[in-house]
Amino acid sequence: MRKLSLLVSLPALIAAGASLSSLSFAHEHHSSGIQTKKSEAILAPFDIVHTRITTNKNVATFHMAVSGKAGDLKPSASGKLAGSEVFSYVWPTSLDSYEVGFEHNAGILALAVTSHPDFDDTPLFDENGDGDTGNDGNLWHSHWVVLQPNEQCGKGALGVVDIPKDAKPRLPKTWPGLPILLDSPGWNPTFNTETVEVRIPFDDIGVINEASFDGVTAGLRVNQSVHAPLLCVVDVMKVASGNLSLPGKSNQ
C-alpha cells in the first residue's frame, strides 16, 4: 500500500490554493456542485474533482468524485488504538449540529465516510455480516462529526469536539459511546469507480436545501494518549473549494 506521503496541513493547502489554477479540470461530466481541478500532486483516490449535494423528496444525496478510484486506499492496521489512523471523505456543512441530534451550534457539522482498521465505532451495525458488530471499522462507513479548531491538534488544525468528563450534552440516539461529538447513524456509503455517495433521509429536507457545504479528503489520528483531544484532523489532502469557504448549495 502506498503511504500518504503527500498530505499537507489545512493552512498550507489553503495558502497553495491559487496554484491549482494552472491545472486542468477533470471529470467535467459531473454537473453542478463544486468543480475542482485535478492535481497530480495528490493521490488519485483522494484528489477531489467534484462535490455535490442533491435532494429528492426527503432524501439528500452527498456525492464526491475523485480523479482515481474512490475508496481504493485504506489505512494500514497498527494493532493499537493510540496513534491509529483514519482516512476520510468529508462534507463540511453549515447545518446546525442540532439538526442531527447534538446541541445547537456545537461546531462545524460534517458528514464523513471513514475507514480505520484499529477500532470500530459503529456498535449498532455489523457491516461485514459476520455476527460481530465490533470488528468492521476497516470497512468504509458514515458518521456525523462535529469539528472545531483545536490548537492541541496543531496550528490551525481541526479536531472532533471532545465531551468533557461528567458532561451530559444532547446526543443522537445512535451515538456510539465515545467521548466525542460523533454519531454512527448507519447510512451506508456507495462507491462506484471514481465516486462515493451517501443517501440520508431528513425529516425536514429544507434544512439541507438552505445549507452550504464543501468537500474535503483528510487523514485523522487518535491521540497517542487516547485522551482529549481524542481525534484530530492531522492531514488534509484536498479541499474542494481550496479554502474551506463552503460555497456549495444543494441542487445548484
Detailed description of the structure:
- It is a single chain.
- The protein has 252 residues and is mainly β.
- The chain has one domain (10-241).
- The protein has two helices and 14 strands.
- Strands 4, 5, 6, 7, 8, 12 and 13 form a seven-stranded antiparallel β-sheet that branches. A five-stranded antiparallel β-sheet has the order 1-2-3-10-9, with no helix packed on it.
- A hairpin with an 8-residue loop joins strand 6 (141-149) and strand 7 (158-160).
- The radius of gyration is 17 Å and the shape is globular.
Layout of strands and helices, then pairs:
Blueprint lengths: L9 H6 L18 E2 L12 E9 L2 E8 L18 E8 L15 E8 L25 E9 L8 E3 L21 E2 L6 E3 L2 E7 L4 H5 L1 E2 L2 E7 L8 E9 L8 E2 L3
Antiparallel strand pairs: 1-2, 2-3, 3-10, 4-5, 4-12, 5-6, 6-7, 6-8, 9-10, 11-14, 12-13
